[in-house]
């Protein structure tokens, strides 16, 4: 896709076919994203991150287009050609710059982290007895359906799958959700990134 000036402001927004579609808080916000500005970093053993630049365009008559992202809003980035979801997470930080002069536009650098960051910010306490479910998928579903649902994260659990081995009673006394997932997976001999 090419970078071309839009309107009389000189703000650079993409024209033509885009390689990615960006949803911010469930709304297709692709037209506000500078192209190319999307950067996604995924490494084994660490959180995935995404960065992009939002352009708010002005003309002689005022604001033409706007997207005002905010911290903790959900971000999903799809690759249009393959249809794959490349990134899903939340906005961590914003940095806004106002360009004066004839250009007259504002850009906002947006930094995001995947949902794993949420698991490192929310603490929980619960005792899982054999009766309540001493299998890793049952514990994971309970954490998603209760603890993460209370945080209004938008995270859902997609199926249970095989139960695997009974891991016995598990006591979590005010630990981060990520540690609950890690300890449960370790006890069941499963991999948790």
How would you describe this structure in keywords?
disordered N terminus, two-stranded antiparallel ribbon, alpha+beta, eight-stranded antiparallel sheet, 193 residues
Could you walk me through the main structural features you see in this protein, from its secondary elements to its overall organization?
The chain has four helices and twelve strands. Mean pLDDT is 80; it is low at 1-15. The longest helix is centred in the C-terminal third of the chain and has 15 residues, at 136-150. A hairpin with a 5-residue loop joins strand 9 (85-99) and strand 10 (105-114). The protein has 193 residues and is an alpha+beta fold. Strands 3, 4, 5, 6, 7, 8, 9 and 10 form an eight-stranded antiparallel β-sheet that branches.
